[in-house]
Every structure is written in C-alpha cells, then in structure tokens.
Amino acid sequence: xxxxxxxGGGLVQAGGSLRLSCAASGRTFSSYNxxxxxxxxxxxxxxVAAISWRGGRTSYADSVxxxxxxxxxxxKNMVYLxxxxxxxxxxxxxxxxxxxxxxxxRWSGSSPSRYNAWGQGTxxxxxx
Length: 128
Hints:
The structure is a single chain. The chain is mostly beta strands. It contains no helices and eleven strands. The strands form two sheets. Strands 2, 4, 5, 6, 9, 10 and 11 form a seven-stranded mixed sheet that branches.
C-alpha cells in the first residue's frame, strides 16, 4: 500500500493560485487511481478531482470545474492539484487519496469509501 504526503497548502488571497502536491511512497503507485478531497470546518469530506492510474482519465466536482486541474507524474510518484481563481469557499483541508478499485467503468470515484490510502491533509486558507 502506498503512503501519501501532501504539501503546498497555505494562506492565499482570493483570486490567487496554488499547486498542491502529493508524494507517494511505494512501488505500486502507478497502479493507483488518485483523487483529491477537501473538508471544510463542520462539513463532510468532499470530492474534488480524480485521475486514472495512467492519467488518461480525469473527473472533477462540478463546483471546481474550470478552476482545478489534477495531474500526475508516475516517474516521480507525484500527484498534483492546480487551483486557480481561489475563492474563500475553497478554504479547507485538502487530502490526497489513492484507490486500487476500478472507479471508471461505473463512476464511483467521488465516494471516499472507494479509496484505501489517505494522506494527512494540507490546509488551504483563502482570504477575501
């Protein structure tokens, strides 16, 4: 199983950009579908984006389409989440997650229960 460590969060002004990174350890990383979730204070964990193990498929929550971009580099065991035009409502802890399940044939990648590896999270705070 992979271990995941997120980085890149911080305090940014609305309208700014961030790139979150997720470093994975383990030789099987390239076989994992990867996702990003976020959790705001007092709310449940929300799906943000997912990418297939080769990077050929991506999926986004409707609320972030056009502003978020997920990517991966299997040679470096890295997953990234680019966030543009940050909004105060993007404030949350962002989690990287890995899944060994088939998320794509019948899309199920928005459910946290379909992921079996999680990072510790990185805080993103957007000031207005």
